[in-house]
Design brief:
Blueprint: H1 4-24, E1 28-39, H2 44-51, E2 54-59, H3 61-67, H4 80-83, H5 91-100, E3 104-113, E4 119-131, E5 134-144, H6 146-189, H7 196-229, H8 232-235
Antiparallel strand pairs: 1-2, 1-5, 3-4, 4-5
EC number: 2.7.13.3
Domain Signal transduction histidine kinase dimerisation/phosphoacceptor: 165-221
Protein name: histidine kinase
Length: 238
């Protein structure tokens, strides 16, 4: 028969290992205890209100930083109204999606605004603990995907810039061929007596068009060079 003391020691060791993982993981981990159990058969708006009314009973340091604090000790045991320095604008949307997903939500992105004016985006996984027909607590994890989203946006801008450059180059080449023929014809017309003023106006317009064409060709070359050598954010001015 197993010694109860050994069983307790084993469980305590497991708990310590779990707490170590909890502290060391790179993802934000948290647990909210509802102030009052939230019946799952209550109207959706009542559920959202109840789920937002909670106390933070567990969180690691990564989560604390995500909430805008230096350490978990600052916010453990505090009500949600105290923890959130600036409630996320789409927090109610997250809770609505959480209820609709039968209290197991994956991949929801939450935007968090900070006092310094910055905004970070977190991808959340949240599941609810239901006891006797009511949600009593929620466990969740969140990863900061802000940098990844910024890189994806930069890639899209780079692809758009490259497409514009290639299109400009294709149009400019065709346009340049037409202008070459026009300017050549104007050179021939100068040898024939006629309206010199009108001829000068047409020549000036053609030369301006030629200059525009050269700029378009320059844009095409510039786009390809920038795509390879320079951060797109710098090319587009941030």
């Amino acid at each position: 028969m197993e010694d109860p003391r050994e069983r307790i020691d084993s469980l305590e060791a497991q708990l310590q290992r779990m707490r170590s993982i909890f502290r060391r993981t790179s993802e934000a981990l948290f647990c909210w205890e509802m102030v009052r159990p939230v019946p799952i058969d209550a109207p959706i708006e009542a559920q959202i209100e109840g789920l937002a009314d909670g106390v933070l009973v567990e969180c690691n340091e990564v989560a604390a930083i995500g909430y805008g604090y230096a350490s978990a000790a600052e916010i453990l045991g505090k009500h949600s109204n105290e923890v959130w320095q600036r409630p996320p604008p789409n927090h109610a949307q997250l809770l609505r999606a959480f209820c609709a997903a039968n209290y197991e939500l994956t991949g929801f992105r939450l935007s968090v605004d900070y006092p310094d004016g910055s905004t970070r985006v977190f991808e959340n996984e949240v599941f609810g603990v239901v006891e006797d027909g009511a949600v009593v607590r929620t466990w969740g994890s969140a990863r900061d995907v802000t940098d990844r989203l910024n890189l994806e946006a930069e890639l899209i801008r780079a692809q758009k810039l490259d497409a514009v450059g290639r299109l400009a180059g294709a149009v400019a080449h065709d346009y340049n061929n037409l202008l070459t023929a026009i300017l050549g014809g104007l050179d021939l017309l100068r040898e024939i007596p006629g309206d010199a003023e009108l001829l000068a106006m047409v020549t000036s317009a053609a030369e301006r068009s030629a200059k525009l064409t050269r700029r378009m060709l320059g844009l095409s070359r510039h786009a390809v060079v920038q795509r390879r050598a320079t951060a797109v954010a710098e090319v587009l001015g941030g």
